[in-house]
Amino acid sequence: MVTIFPNPASDKLVVRMLGISNAIITVFDVAGNKIDVNSISVGLKAFLDVQHLAPGIYQIEIITNGIQLMNKFVIE
């Protein structure tokens, strides 16, 4: 299970991953351009710095054990 908060965000985005130990987290803009990539090896939470992102809607992709999870978030 993956939870993303706060949404909308302004400076940091928390990705809480229950039952996931290794993941690649990629952020895309609304046009589908890759903005940021993070690799998480161990831990229940990933903290993403999003203060450099312009206000708008973004998509986050989490790939773990061959499974792709997608979700949207908003930057204020």
In a nutshell, what does this entry contain?
With 76 residues, this protein is an all-beta fold. Helices cover 0% and strands 62% of the residues.
Tell me which CATH architecture applies here.
Sandwich
Q: How many beta-strand runs?
A: 7
Task: Please state roughly what percent of the residues sit in beta strands, choosing from under 5%, 5-15%, 15-25%, 25-35%, 35-45% or over 45%.
Answer: over 45%
Q: What is the CATH topology classification name?
A: Immunoglobulin-like
Shape field: globular
Largest sheet: 4 strands, antiparallel
User: CATH top level?
Assistant: Mainly Beta
- The number of distinct structural domains comes to 1
The largest beta-sheet arranges its strands as 4-3-6-7
Termini gap: 25 Å
Helix and strand content put the structural class at mainly beta
H/E element order: EEEEEEE
